[in-house]
Structures are given as structure tokens and as C-alpha cells.
Amino acid sequence: MKIVSRNEELLGDALSRIPQSSSRTSPSSYNKLIRFEDINAAAFKIQCAVQKTPCMYSRLSKQYGLDIYLKKEFLQYTGSVKERGVFYLLTSLPQDQQRKGVIVASDSNFSMAVAYHASELHIPVFVIVSTSTSPARVKTCREYGAMVISYGTTAKDSQTHARRLAQENNYLYLEEEDSAVYLSGLGTVGLEIYEQVPKLDAVIFPAGGHCGLLAGSAAALKHLNPHISVIGVESESFPVLQQSLRAGHPTEEQACSNRHFYGDVSGPCFGSNSLQLTGKLVDKVVAVREEDILISMLRLLEYERATVDAEGAIGLAALIAGKLPELKGKRVAIAVCSGNLELHLLQQCIARALTLDNRVCRFSLVLSDCPGDVAKLLEILAREEARVLDIKQERLFVTSELFTVEVTCIVETRDKIHTAQLRNTLLERYPAAKWTER
């Protein structure tokens, strides 16, 4: 059944000025107009292979003063929302092209989704990665059923090799972009959120350069209810989307020194379709600090038992950072859309987040080197219910008076208030104690 809305004209106007040429290898139908019917068709087609993930009320609601509903897209088989667009894209390919196969050249969530769903659809799939790619990502793509080839030391080398293989063997070279087919698949998230959470006031999505989820879902949500606020969140380190919106065209890729942490959020603004839809339909785009993203990852792990990456946590980070005060008391859904964080990064992120949240702290003080003085310090810490993570004693290079020992402790506390209480107690007993600020 067609749902009639005045926003259909808005969708048409948003794409009316899009150039019809593209430098990427793609099906000829890529640059057609995105309509609400396309998103509906995508929802019908992907339901057999892509999970309808829950959108659940969060315990974090009371902490931040609004009703928060988390759309848990990280529960998809490959841990990413990209499966929606990828599956619809692959099933829309002509049968002769499906028989020939597809090829991708990256270690992104998009490539992992292609590897999995192409294999499930019996489409030959090749993934070309650089030699610097994480072994875990290579292993995962192979387990999904793709033929993985390591080539070159940079992403550009692997992309050039993939294009050459595609030309020589009649494979279709796939690259994440903002085709109508791909955006329609991603837009099904907006449809599901609208169905799952009644009386919505706002929905928050990750943005950045790869803003297809934001654009496609905005098209669905604004069609169904123009009064729902659609908000995008990107990193302050590279506000690609905000710069592109101001310029009126996709800006060049910015250098990102931490791509392993930011993942797909750090990519370039890859197309006019998404940019035009975002400019017309998205109410607000805000930027958050890396510290806010890390604390958001910690909150999701503690309160929701959700292990997510930067892309998955960045939506909640906007609330944590206080960037959306107008949402107080409102009913808000957040797309938690990716959970593909490598284990070594997870350990670093959680440790850093605990420090930023003032729950792991360090102090040092000088004690007389007498039996029982260190024991008295530990008694104070036990009485204050602080957990000692590490303690070191330095005798040889202490610059104060003789026969003293410098003790450095790293302790864990419950929260910021507990940390302040512990600090005051220690300063009363040891006025010369040095507290290391984060």
C-alpha cells in the first residue's frame, strides 16, 4: 500500500539536480530517483536475509533525562547495518552479472557484508586488501566465503588491482556509494524504527562522509512523519559532512590519523545523492569529540552489554556531550549500527574511557621507609573502597630526604564523586600527595 505524503515532492526535489554521470563502476540504474516506494520494496526483499533488529528502551534514559530507544543494528550477522544496502544491491544485479561475480577492495563493513551475502547468494566474490590489513578482518572475510587476496601496501594499491581484475575477468567492481538501490536498503532502518517506537520525537544516526544510512533513513522517516527530527552526528576531528553541506558539494577526503578507531565514519563524502538528501531532509548535524565517543562506548558496554565501535557509539555520544539539549524529556531513537571493533582496540578504548570518566586515577606520594607506612596507605584505600590496580615503590632515585620511598598508585573508583572524596581524604592525610590529572 502506498503511503501518500507531501514529502514525496521534497524527495524528488532533493535529487533533481544530481549529475547523472559517475566515475565508479556500478549498475546503470544507480542514479535514479530514490522514492519511498523503493525503500518499501527494499524492506520486502531483504526480510528473508537481514534481521529486523530490536529497538529497545535503554537504562541510560534516566541518566540523561529523556526516553532513549536503541536500534541495535550491531546484532546483524556481520555486525553492521551495511548488510541492508548490500543485500538489496546484490539481489538487484542482473543474473548474468551474478554468475560472473563481484569484487571489492577494502576491509570495511561494506566489504564484509558483500563477502557474506554474495557467498550466501552463490555469487562469486573476491576481496582485495592491502598487506597492512588486520589478520582478523582477512580471516573473517574468508570465513564468510570470499576469496581474499592481499595486494600492495596501501588501500590505493589494492583498489587499482581490483579494478584491473574486474576489467580482465568481467567482475563487477563494487564500491560503497550512494546509489538509489543502496540508499533504499539502508533506508529500511528508518521504516523499522518508525514501526517499533510510537510517538517518536527524534532519531539520531551516525554521519561523517559515509552518510548513506542518515540520508536513506531520513527519506523514510520524513515521508512517514515530517515532524520527526532527524539528526546526524560526526567527529569534530573531520567534520566532512558539515563542510560538504556548506560547500554544496562533496569535499575532498581529509587525512585521518586514526582510521582503525573511526572506521567507516572517517571516510570521504562519497556522493551527491546522499548529500542532497541530507541537506533537504536532515534537521541537524552535530560534531562530537573523541573523548565523548569513548565514554559512549563505555556506557553502552556497561548499561546495554553492547560491544560497539566508534560508528556504533557516536550517536549516543551527542547526548553524552550535551550537544542536543532540545531533546530533554523527548522520545528519541538512536541507531547503534556497528560492532566490529578489534580486540586489541577494545582493551585500549575501555581503559582510556575509564580514565576520561574519572574512574581510574593515579597519585604519588613520599612516605618514610618504615615498616607499616605503605600498609597504612592501603588501609586508607580499603576504607575508602578504592580498588588498587597497581602500586609501585621507588627508593633509589627519590630526590627528597633520605630513607624515604616514593609510592605511585593507580586505583579504580565508582564515579567522579567517589574520586573527589578519595582525593580529599588522601590530601588530608598526605598534603604533599601529587594527583595526576587526566
From TrEMBL:
Keywords: Lyase, Pyridoxal phosphate. Residues 362-438 form the ACT domain. One of its GO terms (biological process) is L-serine catabolic process. Its cofactor is pyridoxal 5'-phosphate. GO terms for molecular function: L-serine ammonia-lyase activity; threonine deaminase activity. This is L-serine deaminase. The lineage of its organism: Eukaryota, Metazoa, Chordata, Craniata, Vertebrata. The gene is Serr.
